Amino acid sequence: MSMRMGICVSSLLKVSCYSHKKKSVPYNLKEGQSRIFHEVPSGLNMEVIVQKSRNVVEDEKHYNPPLVFVHGSYHAAWCWAQNWLPFFSQSGYHCYALSLLGQGESDEPNDTVAGTLQTHARDVADFIHRNIQSPPVLIGHSFGGLIVQYYISSLGNDKLKENLYQELRGAVLVCSVPPSGNGGLVWRYLLSKPVAAFKVTYSLAAKGFQSSISLCKETFFSDTMEDHVVKRYQELMKESSRMPLFDLRKLNASLPVPSVPNSSLKVLVLGANNDFIVDAEGLKETAEFYGVSPVCVEAVAHDMMLDTSWEKGAEVILSWLKSLHN
């Protein structure tokens, strides 16, 4: 019996048999990458793409922290594995990219949505608690950034039955949904850019990006990205998001994310100048929430880690990571 099947059988005692469907558009791992499956508290299995560095610094005072990546809606671990995992592993960092439940190669819960802000954050926390030996840097994109924010708000919370939330070395919020959610973004678009508001609503809420190359490019990427590359990512996005990440009504009702007064955690708030989804006001809100100045990368779109100039954001993060030693 394989390890994968063994996990499935043992999990039957805790949950009804879950659905695991491989994508019909598979993501082929790059050299040095491996795919593992981590069993989360619900008994389901979460895909993790791992790329470890051959030259990581292990010194206790100046060690390079492990990097744990959390994707947003319509994405999965592969979105980090394409460019940023090779980049950061070559720069001396062990990298772990997670696929949240119902996304990528992860198992699907027996529900209409993949989870809540709380359950997704708990799954991330459980992975870190059981697999990462030293405090990592948590990196979240878009709605994944909101999950990271909830993780931060849970640090040291004695009210939680099981405080799985381990100490972090830092956090990076990439084109993140702000702490209050996406409601403010939508209303600003409706009032100031009604055409853009219709496009972004049709593209994301109605999944219009799945059937239109031009709309997919406008939503996630720069104009300079070639259509055949957009099509490849479009297919992966469609296959990766078999069920919604959240129930947005319930999510917005649970927001804003709790504040963390007097927190010493270092946070980098990183935005993209050509972001079609998160506007400058949303970026500013997130930065003010953590008491930092936002960094906005020029000539890059929402999917900063996949865009034509993906190295721009990666270089900013690398410089920030090196500053953690100071």
Describe the structure in your own words.
It is a single chain. The protein contains twelve helices and eight strands. The protein is 37% helix and 13% strand. It is an alpha/beta fold and 326 residues long. Helix 4 packs across helix 5, helix 6 (183-192) packs across helix 7 (194-204) and helix 8 crosses helix 9 (227-240). It has one domain (3-323): 3-Layer(aba) Sandwich (Rossmann fold). The radius of gyration is 19 Å and the shape is globular. Strands 1-2-4-3-5-6-7-8 form an eight-stranded mixed beta sheet, sandwiched between helices. GO terms for molecular function: carboxylic ester hydrolase activity; lysophosphatidic acid acyltransferase activity. Pfam families: Abhydrolase_6. InterPro entries: AB_hydrolase_1 (IPR000073), AB_hydrolase_fold (IPR029058).
